[in-house]
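seq as requested:
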Amino acid sequence: MSIAEIQKQIEEEFSFFTDWMEKYEYLIELGKALAPFPEERKRPENLISGCQSRVWLAVDVRDGVVFFLADSDAVITKGIVSLLIRVFSGHTPQEILEADIAFIDQIGLKEHLSPTRANGLVSMIKQIKMYAVGLSVAGK
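struct tokens:
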């Protein structure tokens, strides 16, 4: 499934909810469903700077395809990072770099986050893109 198709799927899921309390509850559920993050990868180099809560992001590459693992000590942030992993994992660095991240605005996420969480979201996306840049340069 392409990045655009995954984003469309997320937009459809969020369209079922009528208010933001329901959407926050859904984000929390997504965070709870996130694959466990290995304790040994909770190292300083995997922490994302710019997030109020602690967010770890690790990357694995198999056959030129990028897979992300993430965790957070805050439940809503964990749900947000789970959405980003869902969108970007399983794609090549080039696909990640070329992706338009429209779903964030489409579901109204950015406008319903506190300023610190919105900054954290930007930091998470920036880190994912930085990994993709590094991997695409290393792959050439």
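The chain is about 55% helix and 10% strand.
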